[in-house]
Design a protein that fits this description.
The structure is a single chain. With 507 residues, the protein is α+β, with helices and mostly antiparallel strands. Among the domains are: 110 residues, no CATH class; 166 residues, no CATH class. 54% of the residues lie in helices and 14% in strands. The protein contains eleven helices and 15 strands. The strands form six sheets. The chain has a four-stranded antiparallel beta sheet with strand order 5-6-7-8. Strands 14-13-15 form a three-stranded antiparallel beta sheet. Helix 3 packs antiparallel against helix 4. The longest helix has 62 residues. The protein starts with a helix and ends with a helix.
Length: 507
């Protein structure tokens, strides 16, 4: 058997072209090896049918022997299921990391355990009351009680301000992330239109697909966004095809609950609704804002931020009327509990009148007051941010009611105040329980973060195993293509020599 001379020439020429294409693609793969969003490319090839060949037994039809190789395209190795799995894992990891980082940072605001922490300062306050009970007429001991109370109150203010700032930081990050994602949504829609046009024209859109893939990865990380590839259709609903007859595709980007973010070339807009509670809304072109079900799952960074400051968020709270489980409002309850425990004892006790020295019940001189909008109130509501020591006591510490009776040597009332510190349901015990719970919550968040980081890394490794560039493999591909090219070049030289010899023999 033999192959026609034109087919032989075509096999050599198309083989050399394919080898050159493989070298070019491998070189491009190596050049983009450090690009995390680049999907490795391979050359798609198909055999060409040979022409009819006359044989001894008759004419053999086309296709009985090969006629060379045809390059049908350059394909990105980016399996959709691996990308979807990696993006879902990254969304959950981003959610957990956002929560863990914010809680860990907020925990440091309490400065526990330390001599500057509320627990130590509250213990000092109660210790000073114990000392006063043993020497109830000692003005210096009374001043020490008031001074310890002022230091404690300042610690409440500092922690409350820090937690409020932590909440503000979350809201700032939320606004920044939403603004960034709005830009990304617009870019994805624009890229989708450009990719469609290239596919319709039969051109290679791989570079744009890589760019879009990176943006989709970011949307998954930020929002938990998912991607579906669908066929592009015309006005009659029929698939639009490229010159090779393959359907042209477009994408739909949605939140996990189905809320549309990008539909082909049309992008929705995100906006932060301040609340309370705050949330993020989605508005489609010409539509009304809708509020996705953010609390239904681990929807990336934005989901984590909303979980922190939402209706049940640990960093929510703007006073006693808000979520009672938030760290700020739990601290408010401690401050309110301290005032509720000490004030009745102070107003029911006795201290010497600063003018006459007569022991007088301090009915109108509470120990703590609430600064409500610049007005001091003995009835509250008390919070960690507005708790103050009564200015009358600050100016006249002798009015601290150490006595339960008009006896100036009676220190029993100060002793009763000191016992608040050892009450298992008192403010100190309550605060210590809160700090222990915060430690457990932070530790749990960190453990979840560590676990989901590992899951996300495994999912990305699985995607990278298919889509990533192995420089060693690409070097092998270049070497093989080079050897193939050189072999075909030698075959071409041999064929040319044979033809020249044949021509010489017939002259």
């Amino acid at each position: 058997m033999s192959v026609g001379p034109l087919d032989t020439l075509n096999i050599i020429l198309t083989g050399m072209t394919a080898a050159q294409a493989q070298t070019d693609v491998a070189g491009q793969n190596i050049a983009n090896a450090s690009n995390p969003h680049y999907a490795v490319e391979t050359v798609d090839q198909a055999p060409l049918l040979g022409s009819p060949v006359p044989m001894a037994a008759g004419l053999v039809g086309p296709g009985a022997f090969g006629g060379g190789v045809d390059i049908t395209g350059v394909e990105r190795q980016a399996p959709a299921y691996l990308s979807a799995t990696a993006r879902q894992a990254e969304a959950a990891s981003a959610y957990a990391a956002t929560v863990a980082t914010a809680l860990q940072n907020a925990q440091t605001i309490f400065q526990e355990p330390s001599s500057n922490g509320i627990a130590a300062l509250m213990e000092q306050f109660f210790n000073n009351l114990t000392a006063l009970s043993q020497d109830p007429s000692n003005i210096g001991a009374k001043a020490a009680v008031v001074g310890a109370a002022q230091t404690l109150v300042q610690a409440f203010h500092t922690v409350a301000a820090g937690l409020s700032q932590a909440q503000t930081n979350v809201m700032t990050q939320l606004a920044d992330t939403v603004a960034s994602d709005n830009t990304i949504l617009g870019q994805v829609a624009q890229l989708d239109g450009q990719i469609q046009q290239l596919e319709i024209a039969g051109e290679n859109p791989n570079a744009l697909l890589d760019q879009r893939s990176g943006l989709l990865d970011q949307l998954a990380k930020d929002l938990g966004a998912t991607v579906q590839v669908v066929n592009l259709t015309d006005a009659s609903g029929q698939p639009i095809r490229n010159p090779e007859g393959q359907p042209v595709t477009t994408i739909q980007v949605t939140l996990p609950d189905g809320t549309m973010l990008v539909d082909g070339t049309v992008a929705s807009t995100l906006s932060v609704a301040a609340g309370p509670p705050p949330t993020v809304q989605v508005t489609g072109p010409g539509g009304s804002p809708v509020t996705p079900a953010w609390g239904s799952g681990q929807w990336g960074t934005v989901g984590g931020l909303l979980a922190l400051v939402g209706s049940s968020g640990l960093l929510s709270g703007d006073g006693l009327s808000s979520y009672s489980g938030s760290w700020l409002n739990q601290l408010d309850q401690v401050a309110a509990g301290l005032a509720a425990a000490i004030n009745p004892l102070q107003t029911g006790g006795y201290a010497p009148d600063p003018t006459t020295g007569v022991m007088t019940q301090q009915t109108n001189t509470p120990f703590f007051e609430a600064d409500v909008g610049g007005t001091l109130s003995a009835t509250g509501p008390y919070t960690a941010a507005n708790l103050v020591v009564n200015p009358t006591l600050v100016n006249t510490p002798s009015l601290v009611a150490a006595a339960a009776t008009p006896n100036p040597n009676d220190g029993s009332n100060a002793a009763q105040m000191a016992l608040v510190g050892s009450d298992p349901s008192g403010p100190l015990a309550q605060y210590q329980q809160i700090i222990a719970a915060i430690g457990s919550q932070v530790q749990s968040a960190q453990q979840v973060d560590t676990t989901l980081k590992a899951v996300a890394a495994q999912a990305e490794q699985a995607r990278e195993a298919v889509s990533g560039v192995s420089i060693n493999e690409e070097v092998v591909h270049i070497s093989f293509a080079s050897q193939t090219y050189q072999a075909l070049a030698k075959t071409m030289a041999t064929l040319q020599a044979m033809v020249a010899a044949l021509l010489d023999s017939v002259q």
